[in-house]
């Protein structure tokens, strides 16, 4: 396990980090020396478990509740994070929702829910974060998805939100460069998180087809993704902005 203190002294907020990929990113950040805000919407127990895990190996973390689509919640999140650890160095936009449904079954409510959290939530977090980033700048990492590459069936709304994040990343990388804030994205393929397992994806026909179509012969693990997020958060990527890293085992 990599642990080189590449993020020593840094302060990071990871949205949607009470479980799955977000939790692994938060843990890896702490292993690398960052003080981490573990954000959750409803899974308080999960967030507290992540914090306990981090504190058990000597790291620093704090769980803070916030619905990332709610402006008041987001403002409170960043204010509480500042009170806990000081000015911000790293923001990971990871919180999101996904419903895979045929387009005939999609409701306006579902469409709005996806865009409210997956797009507006990212924009709101970034806008609010600008008041808290250190004057030296920092790093914003947006979680996108390879769904924008291979366009899975029954995922039109989710795919549309991730396409929006790709455009958002590119545009804001130019806009925020003058503030010395880098903006990059990660496009994971299918990762074996709690949601994927509990949703029965692994045993589904689509799950088996996805695995078979992946050149490296397996689905991803959260631990396959978190090192790349650390890289984008660290000074090792100091001359990198507006870019997207694809991590999919070769699946396109």
Write a short abstract of this structure.
Helix content is 44%, strand content 15%. The chain is built from 9 helices and 7 strands.
- Unreliable segments (pLDDT under 50, ≥5 consecutive)? none
Strand order of the largest sheet: 3-2-1-4-5-6-7
Number of domains: 1
- The CATH homology group name: NAD(P)-binding Rossmann-like Domain
Q: Number of helical segments? A: 9
Remind me, CATH topology?
Rossmann fold
Mean pLDDT: 95
Write the layout of secondary structure elements.
Elements: E1 11-14, H1 20-31, E2 35-40, H2 44-56, E3 60-65, H3 71-85, E4 90-93, H4 108-129, E5 138-143, H5 147-150, H6 156-175, E6 181-188, H7 194-198, H8 205-213, H9 222-233, E7 244-247
Parallel strand pairs: 1-2, 1-4, 2-3, 4-5, 5-6, 6-7
Helix pairs in contact: 1-2, 1-9, 3-4, 4-6
Task: Walk me through this protein's architecture.
- The protein is α/β, with parallel strands linked by helices and 252 residues long.
- The chain has a single domain, classed as 3-Layer(aba) Sandwich (Rossmann fold).
- Helix content is 44%, strand content 15%.
- A seven-stranded parallel β-sheet has the order 3-2-1-4-5-6-7, with helices on both faces.
- Helix 3 (71-85) packs parallel to helix 4 (108-129).
